[in-house]
Amino acid sequence: MTSSLLTEVSAAVADGIAAADPALTSADPLVRPSERADFQSGAALALARRAGLPPAELAARVAAGVRTGTLADVRVSGPGFLELTVAPDAVWRRVADRAARADLGLPRGEAGKRVVIDYSAPNIAKEMHVGHLRSTIIGDCLARVLGRLGADVVRQNHLGDWGTQFGMLIQYLDEHAEAAWRQDELAGVSPVSALDELYRAARARFDADDGFAGRSRARVVALQSGDPATIAVWREIVTESEVAFRQLYDRLGVLLTPSDSAGESFYNDRLAAVVDELTRAGVAVVSDGAVVVFSEDETGPDGAPVPLILRKGDGGYGYDTTDVATLRYRVSELHADRVLYVVDARQSLHFRLVVEAVRRAGWLPGGVEVAHVSFGTVLGPDGRPFRTRAGDTVTLSSLLDAAAGRALAVVAEKNPALDPAEAARIAELTGVGAVKYAELSTSRTKDYTFDVARMVSFSGNTGGYLQYAHARIASILRRAEGEPDPVVDPSAGLHPAERALGLALDAFGDTLADVAASLEPHRLCTYLYDTARAFTDFYEACPVLTAPEPERGNRLTLCRLSAATLREGLALLGIVAPERM
Ligand code: ARG
After folding, report:
1. Minimum CA distance residue for ligand 1 atom 4
2. Which of 259, 454, 465, 491 is the most buried if burial means most Cβ atoms within 10 Å?
3. What digits encode the pLDDT tens for the residues 10-20?
4. Ligand 1 within 6 A of 8 CB?
């Protein structure tokens, strides 16, 4: 690993602070990237009172104690800011060092930590919708970033494969021999659409027909107690659905594999023990025939504590119970240090209640972090939750088709010489990349508007812009193909545009660490966008292939590191960067 300039400058300022006043030895040096110099520190302003000195005086003493070959200039500005300028040769040494390493010198700050990430989690026998798309894309990005920083990532796809709806579905199939839903019975319709339709039909009958509703409930009991005939149909339904989910995962290029699936059914035989133990511990109580945990933290609109329902009056277990068993399993059997739930914001109360119950049961050791990585709703152009005209939620594949179709038009216009098969391949990567990037580049907690035209544009902060920026650098590098690897001469001058790009490239690892801590992928998007623009500025200001040595070698190395950083950054977003576009 290569320590970043930010890390090194921070350490230097910390030394300066300790030299100025030994009592301030462990104070935060507060170093940030800056517009006016390379970095800035406001530490003297923050610490002046403790030091008993005017900020400018303290800043001057700190500046006098900052000693490192990395910095060419340290000066006090304004009321007591430190402005820190990195030495040109230090910038070049970083660039050379990172470019020479396959891992780009990235940190491994998450090594030794096991992180369980719960994401995607579509519901069997239903179409995956745009909310599951968000979960899938955000969760996959976090899995990649944390894994890249050394974490031991355990992906968990908490499929909705259990519960009362299956009683209804299986009963309906039993009573309606004509209902076609298996792949081999269907022509042209995806099994999931057919299952989705079956679900609606069963639901309608369930709501309208009490007799059917009663028989469906009996089916749930049969399912949960393992009746072989019922289980056989259930298994078939799950398998059909999973085939369709898998097609989407493949198209999206996400990391999830069948072995990551641990659906709700997986926890079925642990539920009774969970309820018993919680009851014996006095955490759960019987209320109106149900077993519940009343929250000590959350109250409803009436001021009464909100209950987490562990066992319903009819003896059945539900979503709440399963999540308590799931969290317990992840901590005690998967040995998670961190458990992340990438689930939409509407479930935040649910997760707070689950975590509270598990903590009160004593199943959550203090060192384990549990986070609800929540996200907002996807909106249509009318500002309402995104739906098709018929009123149904939009299917994911139709959405990707629209993005890829649009990308094909853009690609064909940009590069008419591309052979049609290649253009189609690139359009698929661009379309899927555009949808992913749009998801990841907005702050995840906000609602965002689904707008295919804007997503697939090649200008502005979009996936296509970054893919194109990468392809452009790749084409510059192709013109130097066959030459020996470029050599960096740290003593050559440093143009301001080279400096800006070099510093941006050096901050890649800091950005990833920031994403790992904040769980905000949009910070990586912003970083890549800024870096691509720093490259454009550099390329406009500094000739590369026609420059004399040593500039040529230095600049080619900057090009190589820029391409590698964009390629790797996009890969961590789950987006492929084609070599040509
Ligand atoms: N299947 C659920 C849904 O579609 C999401 C499950 C999220 N994960 C969990 N452990 N509850 O809403």
Report:
1. 122
2. 465
3. 999 999 999 99
4. no
